[in-house]
Specification:
The protein is an alpha/beta fold. The protein is built from nine helices and twelve strands. It has a single domain, classed as Purple Acid Phosphatase, chain A, domain 2 (4-Layer Sandwich). Strands 3-2-1-11-12-9 form a six-stranded mixed beta sheet. The chain has a six-stranded mixed beta sheet with strand order 4-5-6-10-7-8, with helices on one face.
C-alpha cells in the first residue's frame, strides 16, 4: 500500500488544497488523516467538503473532540478556545455528525497503527524521549506492526526503537528514507494547516509499506489568503501571523 499521511489541517483551506494537489500526483491508494480537521483557521466547512471528494481515512483529534466536549475545550489556551468556539458555530450539521463519528485509532495489521496524540489518548504528546520510549514499548504489543503514525505536535518526527531497545530520533531528510524491518517507528508527518517546524510550508508524508519507506514532503501555499480569511472572520490576529513564521 502506498499511503499519503496528513495531520492537523486545522481549517486551513489554502494549505489543504495545495497538499492534496501534490498528493494527486503521488499515485497513492488512500489518504490517512490523523485528526484535528478543525480549529485555529477559518475554513472548516470548505476543508471538510474537499476531503469528501477523496478516499480518506480520518481519525478524531483533540480539537475535533472538543467541539462536543465543553470540559475538554476548557483546557485549551484562550486563543485556541476562541477559535474552537467560532468553529463550533460555523460547521454545518452534516459535518458535525461526521466529526462526532470519527474513530480514535486505525490499525492495518501488519502495516501500521495510527492515532492523533498517542494510541492511549488524543490529548497526549510525543515530544520527549520518555514519551517516545513509552509509546514504542506499547507498539511491541502489536507484533506484526512496526509503524505508528501520530500528529498533534505539528512537528515532523521519526522516532525509532532498534533491536537492542535503544530509542532515539532520526534526522528528517528531504529524500525518501528506507526503514528497517527490524526496528519500530513513530512517524509524525508534520502539520498541514499550522506547521511549527519553522518552515511555513504545509507538511505531509508518503508511506510505502511494500518498499518500507517514508518520504517527508511539503507544499507551498497561499499563506496570505489563509491569513485574510482568519482576519475577516474576526479570529485572533496571532493565528494569522504565526502561519507566515511556521511556529
Amino acid at each position: 500500500m502506498r499511503l499519503a499521511i496528513i495531520a492537523d489541517i486545522h481549517s486551513n483551506l489554502e494549505a489543504l488544497s495545495s497538499v492534496l494537489a501534490q498528493i494527486d500526483q503521488e499515485g497513492v491508494e488512500v489518504v490517512l488523516n490523523l485528526g484535528d480537521l478543525v480549529g485555529y483557521n477559518a475554513s472548516p466547512n470548505e476543508c471538510l467538503e474537499l476531503l469528501k471528494t477523496r478516499t480518506v481515512w480520518s481519525l478524531a483529534g483533540n480539537h475535533d473532540l472538543a467541539l462536543f466536549d465543553a470540559e475538554r475545550a476548557q483546557h485549551f489556551n484562550i486563543i485556541a478556545h476562541q477559535a474552537l468556539m467560532w468553529c463550533r458555530e460555523q460547521v454545518r450539521p452534516e459535518f458535525l455528525a461526521f466529526l462526532q463519528g470519527l474513530p480514535l485509532l486505525r490499525e492495518q495489521p501488519g502495516s501500521f497503527l495510527a492515532c492523533h496524540g498517542t494510541p492511549a489518548s488524543p490529548d497526549t504528546y510525543i515530544a520527549y524521549h520518555f514519551q517516545g520510549k513509552r509509546v514504542l514499548k506499547h507498539l511491541l504489543s502489536h507484533p506484526q506492526t512496526r509503524v505508528c503514525f501520530f500528529g498533534h505536535t505539528h512537528r515532523r518526527a521519526l522516532w525509532y526503537r532498534d533491536i537492542r531497545g535503544k530509542v532515539a530520533l532520526r534526522q528528517i531528510s528531504p529524500k525518501k528514507i528506507r526503514l528497517s524491518p527490524e526496528e519500530h517507528y513513530l512517524i509524525n508527518p508534520g502539520s498541514v494547516g499550522q506547521p511549527r517546524d519553522g518552515n511555513p510550508e504545509a507538511c505531509y508524508a508518503i508511506f510505502d509499506d511494500k518498499e518500507f519507506t517514508i518520504h517527508f514532503k511539503s507544499a507551498p501555499y497561499d499563506i496570505g489568503g489563509a491569513q485574510h480569511r482568519i482576519l475577516a472572520a474576526g479570529l485572533p490576529a496571532f493565528l494569522a501571523e504565526r502561519l507566515a513564521q511556521g511556529t
